[in-house]
Structure formats: structure tokens, C-alpha cells
Amino acid sequence: MSEMKAWLAHYPDNINTNVTIPNKPLSQILQETTDKYPNNSALSFYGRKFSYQQLNALVQTFTSALQRNQVQRGDRVAIMLPNCPQYVVSYYGILTAGAIVTQVNPMSVERELEYILNDSGAETIVVLDALYPRVKSVQAMTKLRNIIVVSLQPSENEFAPDRSFEGFLSESSGNVLPIEIDPEHDVAVLQYTGGTTGRSKGAMLTHRNVLANVIQSYEFFKEEMEIGKERYLTVIPLFHVFGMSSCMNLSIYTASESIMLPRFELEEVLSTIKNEQPTVFPGVPTMYVAITNHPRAEEYGINSIKTCNSGSAPMPLELLRSFEKKTGSMILEGYGLSEASPTTHCNPPFSERKPGSVGIGVPSTEYKIVDIATGTIEVPVGELGEVIIKGPQIMKGYWNMPEETANTLRDGWLFTGDIAKVDEDGYLYIVDRKKDLIIASGFNVYPRDIEEVLYEHPAVQEAVCIGVPDPYRGEDIKAVIVLKAANTVTDDEIIQYCRQSLAAYKVPRLVEFRDQLPKTNVGKILRRALRDEVKNM
Q: Most exposed: 88, 251, 286, 463, by fewest CB within 10 Å?
């Protein structure tokens, strides 16, 4: 067995490494769960519970209302909501109608919103009431004809929305027209990437892509899951592909309860853990940072959580150790991309977990490391290159971007743009994004190498490194740091600390202390925003 296939040996006999993906629409998993577990709690939102029977009935009503408003198979319908029951109802209603869910980040400003609406051609949007004025301001420049407004509480906004979510439901005829869906070719979700390399790109995820990833994830974690018994803490935004797949879709597939929170607010999250005792907590490193640094985290019963699967950004080793020591939970770090629906790798609960690695491929996933220059030569074990991936979860392509699609999908392989290596056991280690590489005095410097060291400093809470222009060295390394409360340290002390563990060319020459770092509303540190600040100085 080659080293690239060595990961297969880690799977026990009861886990299928080559899963069968049924030829059915993604939306069917809700109907099947409802048929088997109608009275199980599907959603919990600030104390209000929805059974699967209630949720499915709302989805059918929403689907009928879409059809009454001439939403056809293949039409794009945008969702611009935080985590809430209406999100799930809209998502599954859109899919049942044969339309395409178009994910919109609620933090999008008018320019970004206008671009996504025009790029997708969406004519219908479901939007939070507080964001309604933003949508109205761009409506004339788009094809929008249906605006459905969700209010999570009595609104004080002084506007008259086109129609409320409840009013839209009342337009249902009570009947859903059957729609023929081709799971392999019909797009279920347009998942827009962050646009870090230019215009945002809409990854076309088919019904089969997204369903495949749900089944792959279940097969991978099934020994840790009890069908109909798990409770997911769903605070990762559902518009983010990680939340969509690892929280919403996986919880529905396993007849579990999704405990929904619209945003990550530390005290609210800890209180929710204490009151609702979730068993699964998909999160990102910044969430675990916040919990680890809370002085009384242990008092909130966080040991109810069996599995914390971390994604979206690299997990610093020191943070992983601190979180597990303080809470007793186990973090399984994984890896994925919007273009892969998203999960491709994770540290296995059934075999060795290697801190610093993102683990092994999930079932039916192939991967290898190729040379950065041409992408055609597979590099030896332990050497750095670009990780490329193949599997049933890989997107159909980018919406209306044939050249981008051709550059990213080659002979069935997804070229990720991530620099990585594998060890002799097939475990994958993500080193950095190609575009995050710092070239200082001709040396290639990967920011994560430095950040791992910085996180080991007892005063450092968060850290990120970027390259800044230097006329002599090409780029200098700058560390931007948030200190833990009541801690003080000088930039020179940080530099000297790094000298103890890093080669001289990797040591930051510049250090800046801040109260906070720029982040996405998933909690991922925005390295790009820091680079842009330097560029605009």
C-alpha cells in the first residue's frame, strides 16, 4: 500500500471506506427522518422546540408558497439570515421546489449583496428584518421580485416589508407539485467563496455533492453517534458551508436536535451548554479560545459534549491542549473547502489522533500532494506541495466561471491552493495557503510555523503573521497579537521568545499588539484584512 493510501488502514472493519451515495434529492433526508422519527425534536431555538413533523410541515408549506409565486426548478433563491428555524424551513423548501439555495452572508454590504444577487440571478430572497433596508437599496439594480422578511422578535424598524415570512406561508395552496430532480447534475446550493483572490465565486454544489458529504461524515463518526439521540450546538453560521453540512444537514440525517444560536456570544453559548447539554459542538478555533480563557468554563457542564470537531481555520496545538485539559472534551480537527461541500479530512475518533494534523480522508475521498509549480508531479512523503482532492463531494464547478473552473478542477481533481504534506501514515498536514506564503530574503516562510510558537507564549491569546514589504528582504514578517487579559509583554520580548524556537529568517521583525483581530462572522481570523491595511498605508 502506498503512503498516499496508507490512511485506509486506519479504518475499522465496520466503517465503509467506499460509501454508496443514493440517487435522491438532498431534501429527501428530511422526509425520511420525519417518517421514522416524527416526534423527535428537530430544532431548539431559545426554548422553543420544533419536532420533525412540525418542521417538515412548515417546509411543505413554504415549498407550496414558492411554487404559487412561480419559483421554478433551477431558479436561485437567496437566504440572508442568521441561524434560526426560518433558515432551515427556507433551505429545505427551496430544495424541495427544485430551486437553488443561494447563500448570502448577513454581514454583506450593499456592494457585495448586489454582486451576489446579480451573479446568481436570484429573483427571490429570504432576509432578516434588520437587513431589509439593505436589500431594498439594491433591489432596483437586481432581478429581485420577491422579498420575504423574517422577524425573530417584535421589530422596532420603521419600514413596511414586502411580505413577512408568516404572510408568505399563508400564500401556500396546501399542495406541493412534484419536481423531477437529477441529483448528480442539478445544483442544490450556490456557496459563495470569500473572494480573497478577487471576485466571489459561486461553488455549484449538486444534490449528490452535499448528500455525499453528509453520508461520508456520518460514516466517519457513526461509532460516536446514536441515531435520534444527539444534540448539536449550532452556533456556526448556517450560511457557511461548515455549519450547513456539519450542523444542519448532518443533524437532520441522524434525526438529532439542532440547538440554534444566531451568533457566538460567550456567556450565551456557555449558558446554552449548561441548560441544553449538547453532545456535539462543531466550532472554529476562536470559539475554543474564548471558552478556554473563560475563568469558570468548567462550571457550565461542557463535559456533556462528546465531540468537538474543529474546522474553517488551523487549530494551534497549544490551544487544543489547553481546551481539552480544561474541559475534558476531545477536539477532532478537520479540513474542508466550500468547493468540497466541505469536509474532506478529519482526525479519526476510531484511530490515532495526531495534533497538528487535519487527519485522514473521509470515506470515498482520494488525495495527494503535487508540486507547486506544475501540479503534475506527486511529491514524496513529508515534502511540501499543493494538496489535490477527488471524491463525490467535489463541486460541479464555479457558477458562470468556466476559466476558474478549468483552473481548479483538472481531470476530476480539485486543486485546493493549500500547501500541505502527508506523513507515512497518510495523515495530512496543512501548512498554509499558497497566497499566504511570506518570502523573506529568498526563504519561504509559512505563517503557521510562527503562529504555533506564538500561541505557546503564556501571555498570547491570539496571533497572526503577515508579510509586509521591505526593500532589502522583499518581505518582513509582522506578528499581530492579542494578549490575554491582565497580561503585558513587549515586542522585544516576543521577538526574543521566537528566537528560541525558530530559525532566524522566520523570526518576526515587527510586532503589533491589538485589542482584537479582524474576523469573519464564523470567527475565522481575516489575515487578508491585515495585509490590505499594510497595502493601503
A: 286
